[in-house]
Design goal:
Number of domains: 3
Number of helices: 18
Oligomer: single chain
Structural class: alpha/beta
Strand order of the largest sheet: 3-2-1-4-5-6
Number of strands: 6
Largest sheet: 6 strands, parallel
Shape: elongated
Strand content: 5-15%
Amino acid sequence: MKSDVFSLLYLVSAVLFIVGLKGLTRVRTARRGNALAALAMLIAVATTLLELGSIDYRWIVAGLAVGSTIGAIAAVRVQMTAMPEMVALFNGFGGGASALVAASVLWLELIESNTTATVAATLGGSAAVTVFLSFLIGCVTFSGSVVAFLKLSGRLRGRPIMLPGRHYVNAVLVLGVAVAGWALAFFTTDSDATRLACLVVAAVSLIVGILMVIPIGGADMPVVISLLNSLSGLAASATGFVLGSNVLIISGALVGASGLILTQIMCVAMNRSLGNVLFSGFGETAAGDDSEYQNVSSYSAEEAAMVLESAESVVIVPGYGLAVAQAQHAARELADLLESHGAKVTYAIHPVAGRMPGHMNVLLADADVPYEKLIEMDAANPEMRTTDAVIVVGANDVVNPAAETDPDSPIHGMPILRVFEAQTVLMIKRSLSPGFAGIKNELFERDNTMMVFGDGKKILQAILAELKELSAAA
């Protein structure tokens, strides 16, 4: 009877995970989806503890207290601009947890019992393989996520770090970890050999994770984060097989599959393959400088306000610069004022704008921008020719016409927001520095582009003040 109740609770948890994940696909339902997924996790954890029966709850309570404290502090103190690196770090924690669970199973079943049987003989052949996969994927996810965190937070340079002969080194390491994993699963016959094989698999996997992410530049971070998210799910699913936990297998598979789908969506948005993202070192080119530009016109906030005063249709294009400047609220205030003057205002969102998938959507939701005003790239581009003014705040590569005009450009073929087709483009940037691709932006020299230099938030606030003065004077 008890087993039937536990099975039913696990089924409820799995269904809630699926419904919650579905809810996360839309901004309107994301909060409810997140709450349902959290409830699913609570049911799964509580059911597991009840099923285990008599256990020492001291470590459970201690872990709950520490984890809840860290999570609460992160939720309250982490700025919206730091959300990508926090997501990367949490992905790493998920992978690390899976590797530790696999290690604990080996410790209890083989090392502590001091058995002379192999892992396969003790746990079964399939369990032996999944233990190895938990180690491999979990450690790769952990170290790769830490590198992604360091890159996103600026503690490690964002541009690709290209090590000589990296492809050969990676091939040797992957082959080595496969051999060590095979030996761990089927050939180690004493606790010392098992311990050594575990350490080798863990150490080499950690190195593979580092070498996998180091050569990837900031422009590809949305793909990296979604891929690492997928790997953390796969590690959890493999751990589910080790523990015989159906709910862990299901939830891990959901995360792994959704992460892979999202990774593919990001690659399509950049018109590149996953292999190209992982191995090409995109963004390695040297950063350009101001001397590359010959025909750039700089304008003031007052001149920008005069253009917007008569505009009947305005599109705002947010980029990472908007996130850095914390300018989302200023953008919303400017949009509200323009709408009060009769203008139609929308926000054009490029799939890979920012540092993580959906970064701009999350940022604008923080400013209570209505979801229906967020327009995806494919829907926004046909409207550009009839748009009076486009305000680009901090975006660079995703609006660079070189993607269409220059066959030799590293971003050639990447779908972009065709803002250059609008009547006027207000480009708000701190300087003429290039984006993550490290290349010149042809948009800066277009005749219909007005460069407004400065901090995104301050410029938007200055334009807002000028518009209010113009309205009062009228």
